[in-house]
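**Discrete fold encoding**
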Amino acid sequence: MKILIIEDDQEAAKYLIKALSEAGHVSDHAADGDTGANMALTQDYDVLIVDRMLPKRDGLSIIEELRSRDNQTPALILSALGQVDDRVEGLRAGGDDYLPKPYAFTELLARVEVLARRRKPEDVETIYTVGELELDRLSHTVKRGGQNILLQPREFRLLEYLMKHAGHVVTRTMLLENVWDYHFDPQTNVIDVHMSRLRGKVDKEFSNPLLHTVRGSGYVIRDDNR
């Protein structure tokens, strides 16, 4: 999953990003309400985790604006305000769930996963397939020919992006921006290294390679047998 964390407490945000990454998910972070609202409106996320009390604008006003613009991305509200009236106010503002602070990460993760599953199929595709290769975004699993393939978080994100654009050439710049969150060329072979590892896991045991290099352009995932 790709998650947006809108949280002004830097330490709390770092903890969440690290914990979610270890669980196999990718997170972006906004440290104030204005930035968070802009990111939520202009980028695609599976779930939002929104602190209620933020600089510049509060979390509830962000959610209200999203709903007024017909953005239905599920939102989990985090807040030290945990009384019944506070929770009711958050839900009525358009929040999908409300978790008082302090919280247990295992509970937060379970709630986030539930919110992602609630999205309508037309809102977000959760399973990608290319030939006999299947990637499930919610369970964070990959299978080919019925065999489980274990991927590291970055490898999973790389394969997810390629499969999302199956049949189309994905450039190195697109991968740097969308898989590594780089908006500059780091002048390293990081993409080549990860593609080599991914090929070793996805294609090595099979006669029909799915991952292809398009010289001078980038990469494409496709099933040439179909």
The longest strand covers residues 2-6.
